[in-house]
Amino acid sequence: MEKLSYDEVCKLPQRRWATRGDAEVPAEVEDRGHDPSSDAIGGFYGISWLEVFRDSVTCELYAVQCYDGVNRSKGAYEDE
Question: Where are the beta strands (DSSP E) in 1-80?
Fold first, then answer.
């Protein structure tokens, strides 16, 4: 499977969390600033990005926003 383009990724529905068992899909993604602050170097305290998955039941493609930074972080999967 070819990588989804950034434009295709931006059009996908988003979910808060990925479901265990859903397959990650190769995609071109761009990092963005997260937690903006005029006090932070570069204007942000962290970065965010999208990860793409295929639902194991419906086969629907969806994206999950992830971020990492000084103040908080979030991966694709909910902490259990």
Answer: 14-15, 23-25, 32-36, 44-54, 61-69
Interatomic CA distance for residues 6 and 14, integer angstroms: 14
- Four-point Cα dihedral 68, 72, 76, 80, nearest 10: 140
What's the mean pLDDT when you consider all of the chain? 92
With CA atoms as reference, report the closest residue to 73 among 54, 49, 42.
Answer: 49
- 41 pLDDT band, cuts 50/70/90, is confident
Assigned domain for 79 exists: no
Q: How many domains does the chain have?
A: 1
CB atoms within 10 A of CB 80: 4
Contact residues for 23 (Cβ-Cβ < 8 A; gap 6+): 53, 54, 56
What is the residue range of 59's domain? 6-69
Q: pTM for this one?
A: 0.86
